[in-house]
Amino acid sequence: MTRRAELADNLADVRDRIARSCAEAGRPESSVTLIVITKFFPASDVHLLAELGVTDVGENRHPEAFDKRQACSGLDLRWHYVGGIQSNKAAVIGSYVDVVHSVDRPKLVGGLDRGAAQSPATDGDRPVGLDCLVQVSLDPPTHRGSRNGVATADLSALASLVQDAAHLRLVGLMAVAPLGEDPTVSFARLAEIRGQFLDEFPQATALSAGMSGDFEAAILAGATHVRVGRSVLGLRPTFE
Ligand SMILES: *Cc1c(COP(=O)(O)O)cnc(C)c1O
Fold first, then answer.
1. Cβ(68) to ligand 1 under 6 A?
2. Which of 133, 125, 123, 138 lies closest to 189, judged by CA?
């Protein structure tokens, strides 16, 4: 089987699973965006994915993300950054991606805003601004110190900082289900956090949740963006 046929098969399967979860949740299929996470896979795969109708791709590391975007510059794709961000890389990442999912601490906001200010994208004569999601931790409080997102108690303050930054747009929340817990339970907690978040930030309606192992559960809990790697591309060539 060619790589193209393999990706086409996998994509059809994932799209079918998304459609069934949407039906089960009583939501239109158009309410969920599939982001294919292409980390560790070559730019040639991204070209094939674009041919197969993928509109959104995600990466989790700089400079891999930058290099791949350069190698795919002719393609009409939205580039999402979903990985942890070192503070000193925030500006460069903010200058070349379209959406950042992993804003997890106040220290990143200034750099992302500076980077976004350099981005050439405009809507008429207004800068478009960089779409940002705040990554919230679903870890139990006893896991303090882990780096899986901002603690719920600090979420509102971080989201306000993003909202007030001149070149950033607060569009929603992102989360990763912690290992060792039923994702349905984790995502129920996320839905509750999101409910309160939307009271304060009603325009920030995006919810990025769900990976290969748990995107169905995430859609049932309200996810609008699922981040799927292995189920589309296969096993990653290297361990993380
Ligand atoms: C790698 C990654 C994914 C995709 O994971 P798969 O299990 O390959 O689907 C999703 N989200 C983040 C933040 C990732 O780093």
1. no
2. 138
